[in-house]
Amino acid sequence: MKIVHIITRLVQGGADENTVITCNLQVARGHEVWLVHGRDVAPGMMSQIDDRVVVLCEPSLVREISPRQDMQALLGLTRTVRELAPDVVHTHTSKAGILGRVAARRCRAPIVLHGVHILPFQSVSRAKRWLYRGLEAAVAPATDAFICVSRGMRDSNLAAGLGNAENNHIVYSGMDLARFETALPAESLPQGRIIVLAAAFEARKRQEAFLDVFAALARRHPDIRLALLGQGECEPVLRAKVARLGLDARVHFLGFRRDVERWIAGAEICVLPSMREGLPRVVIQYVAVGRPTVVTALPGIDEVVTDGENGFVVQSGRVEDMEAPLEQLLGAPDLTARMAEAARRRDMSKWSAETMVDQIESIMARVSVRKGLASARLSMSPT
Length: 383
Known about the structure:
The protein has 13 helices and 13 strands. By secondary structure, it is α/β, with parallel strands linked by helices. A 7-stranded parallel sheet has the order 3-2-1-4-5-6-7, with helices on both faces. A 6-stranded parallel sheet has the order 10-9-8-11-12-13, with helices on both faces. It is globular and about 65 Å long. It starts with a strand and ends in a 13-residue tail after the last helix. Residues 192-346 form the Glycosyl transferase family domain. InterPro entries: Glyco_trans_1, Glyco_trans_4-like_N.
């Protein structure tokens, strides 16, 4: 099959990693695969893409709303889809999802899929919620199947009136689980007890607010260290706040890491204070390594972290409320050990990369049959 994936950015986010893994496995199975991305690309992402995947850049495709660039991106995506004439267009993330699905329908692409990694109208202002929900509703009829990364994302999508029970599917965001389940600690770990926070430096990840929590904990626990794994637009603000709090020797900026599993393995506790996510891949990675996790309540998080068993889920969603469970863990090594063991026992098999791609191909096959497209050209067998 000819499959075109379209994504807004290639940074170190979960949607981007998910998309790259999907492309790599599909091309390894013999499909013809294109990956169309927007202007923003993080260092290190291109090297993760299989050489057999054809990568194209649409420079007008940007994350922020920009009527002029959005129209240029739509024209560019339409031109690309028309020239490639794929069997499947699979869009990812909000901006690429909206523009890519419009382009796919304008070109009469046989099958159009959209990955629901996060919903753009959750935890935003009323005006943005109205706008984003309206745009998603407008392109929903152009979508043959929604591929939701968690039960929570599917339920939220349906509650918003996007699609129906037949075309909303749960496909967990797959990864190389063995890489995490067998990880050994990094050799260059800082001295002390390490808390890991792995996330892109974006406002919705709320690292800045978490620094206040860490500062309070650090006053009571002089041996703790915070390892920030990631990069992004908020880094200057975060570095300035660390300096202002006098935490330069306690907070370590580690940048984009290809060995994230080794830093997780070296941690005592892992955290994620995000305001808005789908089902964050990094939490799956924390648990796969076998680390207690403290996380804010997010859609589908209960599928990975059971509050009080292998971590703590802060139901209020407030970053400041993460301090109490972290204090509890830091003050009770036996509790930390029990939660780590519970994390290691958790069955994570449904998050394997192979399972993810198997399910996506099954969905494509069902859509093909439903639309009467089952032919030699649309066979699930590699071309």
